Amino acid sequence: MLLPVAVSVLVGAFAQRVTGMGFALIAAPALVVLLGPFDGVIIVNACAVLSSLLILPRVWRHIDWPRFRWLVVPAVAGTVIGALVAARLQGPVLQLGIGILVIVALTVSLAVTRTQHVATGRTPAIVAGATSGFMNAAAGVGGPALSVYAVATRWPQAGFAATAQPYFVVIGLSSLIGKLAASGWALPEVEPGVWPVSIAALLVGLGLGELLHARIGHRAARAGVIVIAYLGGVVAIVDGAINLAG
Asked: Among 67, 24, 77, 87, which Cα is nearest to 163's?
């Protein structure tokens, strides 16, 4: 099991460095299937926080702090609700829900890219932040809602990718604290090797992304993330449905 965990984390970290997001989209569905919906998302949240912290110094000067504040406050509130939901659902039901959330969020994100309407004002930021926070705590995937907001408001990629890093640090920590508190501070019951392997794979993925991000087109990288995330979401749905039926 350690090898597929390592591959999932490595590819997710690589995508995070190249596109500014994508770690959870790739890693969450796979780790949910491999480790279970609750423990898998806990590890995704922890690795996502570390990933964004390591990227943060590289993008600091491009962060849009006013927009960050309007997104992160409702996002933290959303993580509280998501953590409570995740702690109370049965494993197969939660896994099924995670897969569905990934597919729906990706589909909405793609649909928004085709519209000519430009969203303005603070309401879209508040809605996107709250939705992203809920999804991050419940399913480990807070990125799609943020991506929809970025596309809808025509947020330049450099500012979006930079601002996403402190945003993911805050909501990742909030999700971790909320989920652990809601579960009675129960730590993930995984093999001892999962944590060091995940951290090592994360560092390797970020290193490869740092070396190669200038050579990879942003559009091609995002397309790859979307395809892998769709496949992961489908696998999570199928596996969750099988476990629920059994």
From this structure: 67
pLDDT at 229: 67
Q: What angle do CA 48, 183, 24 make, to 5 degrees?
A: 20
From residue 118, give the alpha-carbon distance in Å to each of 112, 150, 204, 209. Answer: 10, 10, 38, 31
Weakest mean pLDDT among 69-78, 146-155, 221-230, 231-240: 221-230
Question: 């809601």: which residue's tokens?
Answer: 182
Q: What is the reported pTM?
A: 0.80
Alpha carbons 150 and 127: distance in angstroms, whole number: 12
Number of H helices and number of E strands within the chain? 10, 0
Domain assignment of residue 143, given as a range: 2-245
Closest CA relative to residue 175, chosen from 129, 136, 139, 127: 136
Number of domains observed in the structure of the chain:
1
pLDDT band at residue 85 using 50, 70 and 90 as cut-offs = confident
